[in-house]
Amino acid sequence: MIGNPVCVAPTGDRCGEGPVWHEAHASVYWADINRFLIHRFSPADQTVRSWFFDEPVTGLSLTDRDDVLAVLLGSCVILWEPATGLRKKIFTLDTWPQVRLNDGRADPRGSLWVGSMRNNVQADGSSVAAGGKDGVLYRLDPSGRVTKWRSDIGISNTIAWSPDHRHFYFGDSLANTVWRFDYEQEGGNISNEIPFLTNCDRGSPDGSAVDTEGFLWNCRFHGGCIVRVAPDGRIDQVIEMPV
Q: What span, in angstroms and rounded, lies between the C-alpha atoms of 31 and 174?
């Protein structure tokens, strides 16, 4: 049973993205791309704290250290310590500002997968039209090695793994498609791309998460809903959202 959505933090985001539950902090972190913000909501005391950055904040991922988050900015990836404010750059996108990062998450091996898109956020935070196929899917390994796994992407969105780590999910909002790949756990490689969720008539695919049963929860941009998709690609439920 899925209950009705409840607003717990009316932060007025222009483009809220990338919520990540941080168990050690008992809080959820997320970004507002157009206002260059990271928020943290703590359910225990119902408080929100926000941090400002110098450019769009487009994604967040946990790391193997409780005090450090991996943060995707428009131009780069940094390691960020919320408690101290320390920011350390670990990857720079050489196509910025024409292209920016958009979505990312660490894999079971500790590599960070990040995707890019044609930049649609101006220096003042205002939006312009997205389009083209400038996006690339990258993998950043702990050794510092960077590899490219897919190109010609409109808008990179959805980076997730099945609970058994056998499959990897990745989407392109402009293509209205989420693909499923075989994921090779030892080397962290992906192969055998097949369409998984395509041509859904409720908007376009944005970010996703996978639950313990292996169902993919996909937010539908301009669709006003979240779809829960079974491992076989069947839409199991549509959760209407007041947006």
A: 21
